[in-house]
Specification:
two-stranded antiparallel sheet; alpha/beta; binds P-hydroxybenzoic acid; eight-stranded parallel sheet; 16 strands; single chain; Aldolase_TIM; TIM Barrel
Length: about 350
């Protein structure tokens, strides 16, 4: 069995190790315009030794935005900003994927000119998101009740994903990752409690999974299946979305995705968000359902990652908080050099502090 420090092929990309950088919201894009900037470039370049850097969630359209100061990938200025970052990551020897994000109902009317965010259904729900407070700092606010996307809006939504994919390629990314996890739009369609539709996108599991699969096909056709990964979190409660039949939903989606020749399937496990530890039975079932590369994530440490790699249940692990605090994480894990602790106070928004000032091992 390979170690975490051996290469892996993820579709069109070969990674030198299996220690990936998980997608991480940091809310430091330049506003107005949600444009990636030089500070973000420095942050990503510092982490270029990851097998693969997966970018923070990057909204595919203004409609897909739900938090202050997150970057987008729909405007020319955003593509130009990302190009500077991907060039610099490549020059530093790295590889980087763009995470394509539509938050759906995890949003606030202040991002949408006073209009409610969109979702599968107009069901009231309880959750919070982050807007700029009067002091300029991130402030948590309640998410409003969304409006249901109209059936006639779905082609336009698919076109937004396609356009974002073309932009990601143009911006020099190696891959894209579709965000199908954590209670955002595609998960809102998949989960029965947030999806009360009575059309072809609601009701049966097959119907609820339709949007996620159509988005996958739209994104793959805009580039190539071997340039596309997808992240799911079918089990657990995230952002006010949970699926009582999450295991079944996840395995259904995995089986449907299995024949599509994608770069990877990325499973985010519930315990990073305070949920229970996932059991190996589900991991084994997922492996049975999906033969391609599986990336595991969610509160992983090196021992858990290596155990699951040894058992053949994952092919790589993505690390979030450890990568925030340790820009040279693969080297630190391989050499058992110890880790810097991360400071949650500086995760979201702000400048260099808690972002680009974590030291590499001396
Ligand atoms: C967050 O900003 O808290 C966040 C964003 C994306 C995720 C999960 C959490 O997938």
């Amino acid at each position: 069995m390979p170690t975490l420090f051996e290469p892996l092929t993820l579709g069109a990309v070969t990674t030198p190790n299996r220690v990936l950088m998980a997608p991480l919201t940091r809310m430091r894009a330049t506003v107005p315009g949600d444009v990636p900037n030089e500070l973000m470039q420095e942050y990503y370049v510092q982490r270029a030794s990851a097998g693969l850097v997966i970018s923070e969630g990057t909204q595919i359209s203004p409609e897909g935005k739900g938090y202050m100061d997150t970057p987008g990938i729909y405007s020319d200025a955003q593509v130009t900003g990302w190009r500077t970052i991907t060039d610099a990551v490549h020059a530093a020897g790295g590889r980087i994927a763009a995470q394509l994000w539509h938050v759906g109902r995890v949003s606030h009317e202040s991002f949408h000119g006073g209009a409610p965010p969109v979702s599968a259904s107009a069901a009231p729900y309880r959750n919070r998101t982050t807007v700029r407070g009067e002091d300029g700092r991130p402030t948590r606010v309640a998410c409003p009740t969304p409006r249901a996307l109209g059936l006639e809006e779905i082609p336009r939504l698919l076109e937004d994903y396609r356009r974002a994919t073309v932009n990601a390629r143009e911006a020099g990314f190696d891959l894209v990752e579709i965000h199908g996890a954590h209670g955002y739009l595609l998960h809102q369609f998949l989960a029965a409690d947030s999806n009360r539709r009575e059309d072809a996108y609601g009701g049966s599991l097959e119907n609820r999974a339709r949007l996620m699969l159509e988005v996958t096909d739209a994104v793959a056709s805009a580039w190539s299946p071997d340039r596309v990964g997808i992240r799911i979190s079918p089990i657990g409660s995230f952002n006010g979305t949970e699926d009582p039949e999450g295991a079944e939903s996840g395995l259904y989606v995995a089986r449907e995705l299995a024949g599509r020749g994608l770069a990877f399937l990325h499973l985010s496990e519930p315990d990073w968000a305070g949920g229970p530890q996932l059991d190996d039975a589900f991991r084994r079932d997922l492996r049975g359902a999906y033969r391609g590369p599986i990336v595991g994530a969610g509160n992983y440490d090196v021992d858990k990652a290596q155990r699951l790699l040894d058992a053949g249940m994952i092919d790589a692990a993505a690390f979030g908080r450890a990568f925030i605090a340790n820009p040279d994480l693969p080297r630190r894990l391989e050499g058992d050099l110890g880790l810097n602790a991360s400071d949650p106070e500086t995760f979201y928004g702000g400048g260099e502090a808690g972002y680009t000032d974590y030291p590499a091992y001396a």
